[in-house]
Recover the amino acids of this structure.
């Protein structure tokens, strides 16, 4: 494709720029025509930009409204129009007020699928919230012996998937349990130290096998062994063990196992090592990442890279949020709070801070090793205040919590999918971090990060975004493939945080083709900001001497040092203009 765009290209091109990344010497960058022809154009229509809107049916039933520029609009239309492509819905077994039960979930699932979204069904296996502090089994199953509990998990899951399938609302992905780091269905599936994984695995496999069996079934309601039960709330009493049948062939539905510990690599490795040893077969690692609970972006990036390489599984940050206000609505409901000291430096409590956080998180996921980061989902962006139910989530919504007006922080969902294009030397050609001792140490945001432009390809304008861990002198330039400078977009001293600038090809009379954007960083001596580079005390420590910063983890692994001397260095990426 590049050869067609640039017929004048000969065998070898040299771009007059250099890349250093975290290394101490400047390295010339050469582009060869045969390599340029193989550049990944960065288009990925499968990258997941999802939201969990499980509370929406209740808000809608009580008259809650959402709007764009003051015009009342259906929430699903707003989400679809602004780039959301996946919806997550939680399912409770027997909720006290109907909402999030099977009937309610079926109603909203049908609307979600009719709108063209893909669907993630989050089965809590509880009558109420399931999370690290609460994994209570449904009341209908409380007194069951373990063998019948497994059968009930299987039969209930089979019935749920069969019903959704019969109503043209088959999920594309299913979570077996929610934030199950400590286990599920306590006490039977509870973990204690290294014990408990055998029973937990049996419960997980019962649910997984049921999902695939129901999805593969030719019968809309399932065969007699499952339909003999009159209600999904009734425990299985058959003497034959349903859950012990042979594992069915995998279906089109992807299975996710979800932990809350997005920034805790030690805990995630412990959990997945043990669960995989029990032959639990799943497709996707789901992580929760709320910065005030789950560590720094450094911790998250390190963890995702390590899990990607260690387990060769796709990864989704399936729950996340960031505050845009700290104003209490006095709506009669206690709020989920946050510790401002544990928020990310450079991302203030504001709509802009929320927006910048989502852009950074999205790019962090996309840059996961081996391209295993496949998406993110924002938790309850539409949980606004609607009488009489109130909201516990007013600090974190992507809509005004009183009026329902869409906020600008939905923008990170509304862009053309793009992934890194492979000329940044911080990773190898296959996306693998250069430091094999601790995956991700070369690309974590304790150092400068240059993100892929969006949209990419673009016409005529695109946004270039980058992250600075400390104040620095910045030069951002655009080059053509012959190494000729097109324009200098930035030449200034900038503070720590996320920055972005727009590049408009029309202003420079450019033709279609591949261009290089290149950022040169000259850190100001003595401006290391300890707060912006500090690690969560549970996961590591920070030390600095002689202008070099080293990160030490509790497991004794030392991350590669990050140069903080005033030596200029340059990072570059490719982008595609298509007219």
């Amino acid at each position: 494709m590049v050869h067609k765009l640039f017929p004048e290209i000969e065998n070898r091109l040299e771009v007059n720029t250099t890349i250093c990344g975290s290394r101490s010497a400047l390295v010339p960058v050469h582009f060869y025509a045969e390599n340029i022809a193989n550049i990944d154009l960065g288009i990925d229509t499968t990258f997941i930009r999802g939201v969990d809107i499980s509370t929406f049916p209740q808000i809608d039933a009580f008259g809650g409204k959402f709007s764009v520029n003051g015009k009342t609009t259906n929430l699903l239309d707003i989400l679809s129009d602004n780039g959301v492509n996946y919806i997550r819905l939680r399912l409770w077994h027997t909720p006290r007020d109907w909402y999030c039960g099977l009937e309610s979930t079926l109603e909203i699932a049908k609307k979600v699928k009719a709108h063209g979204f893909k669907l993630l069904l989050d089965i809590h296996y509880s009558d109420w919230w399931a999370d690290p502090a609460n994994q209570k089994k449904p009341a209908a199953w409380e007194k069951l012996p373990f063998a019948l509990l497994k059968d009930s998990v299987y039969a209930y899951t089979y019935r749920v998937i069969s019903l959704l399938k019969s109503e043209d609302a088959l999920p594309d992905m299913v979570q077996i349990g929610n934030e199950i780091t400590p286990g599920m269905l306590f006490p039977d599936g509870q973990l204690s130290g290294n014990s408990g994984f055998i029973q937990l695995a049996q419960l997980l496999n019962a649910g997984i096998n049921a999902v695939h069996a129901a999805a593969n079934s030719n019968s809309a309601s399932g065969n007699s062994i499952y339909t003999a039960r009159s209600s999904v709330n009734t425990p299985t009493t058959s003497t034959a063990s349903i859950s012990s049948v042979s594992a069915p062939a995998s279906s089109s539905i992807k299975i996710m196992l979800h932990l809350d510990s997005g920034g805790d690599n030690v805990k995630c490795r412990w959990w997945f090592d043990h669960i995989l040893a029990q032959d639990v077969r799943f497709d996707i690692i789901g992580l929760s990442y709320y910065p005030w609970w789950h560590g720094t972006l450094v911790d998250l990036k390190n963890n995702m890279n390590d899990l990607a390489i260690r387990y060769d599984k796709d990864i989704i940050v399936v729950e996340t949020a960031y505050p845009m206000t700290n104003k209490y609505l006095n709506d009669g409901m206690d709020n989920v709070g946050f510790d401002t000291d544990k928020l990310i430096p450079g991302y203030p409590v504001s709509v802009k801070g929320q927006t910048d956080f989502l852009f950074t998180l999205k790019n962090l996921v996309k840059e996961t090793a081996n391209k295993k980061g496949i998406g993110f989902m924002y938790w309850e962006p539409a949980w606004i205040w609607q009488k009489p139910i109130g909201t516990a989530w007013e600090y974190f919504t992507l809509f005004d919590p009183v009026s329902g007006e869409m906020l600008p922080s939905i923008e990170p969902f509304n862009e053309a999918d793009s992934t890194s294009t492979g000329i940044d030397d911080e990773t190898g050609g296959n996306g693998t971090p250069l430091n094999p001792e601790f995956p991700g140490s070369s690309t974590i945001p304790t150092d400068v990060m240059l993100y892929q432009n969006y949209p990419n390809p673009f016409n005529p304008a695109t946004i270039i975004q980058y992250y600075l861990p400390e104040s620095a002198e910045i030069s951002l330039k655009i080059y053509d493939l012959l190494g000729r400078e097109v324009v200098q977009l930035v030449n200034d001293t900038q503070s720590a945080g996320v920055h972005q600038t727009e590049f408009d090809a029309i202003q420079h009379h450019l033709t279609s083709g591949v261009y290089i954007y290149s950022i040169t960083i000259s850190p100001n001596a003595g401006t290391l900001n300890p707060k912006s580079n500090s690690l969560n005390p549970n996961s590591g420590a920070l030390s600095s001497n002689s202008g070099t910063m080293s990160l030490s983890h509790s497991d004794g692994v030392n991350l590669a040092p990050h140069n903080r001397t005033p030596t200029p260095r340059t990072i570059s990426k490719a982008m595609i203009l298509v007219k």
Remarks:
- Confidence is low (pLDDT under 50) at residues 1-44, 220-232, 417-445, 525-565.
- Residues 146-166 form the longest helix (21 residues).
- The chain is about 25% helix and 25% strand.
- The longest strand covers residues 513-523.
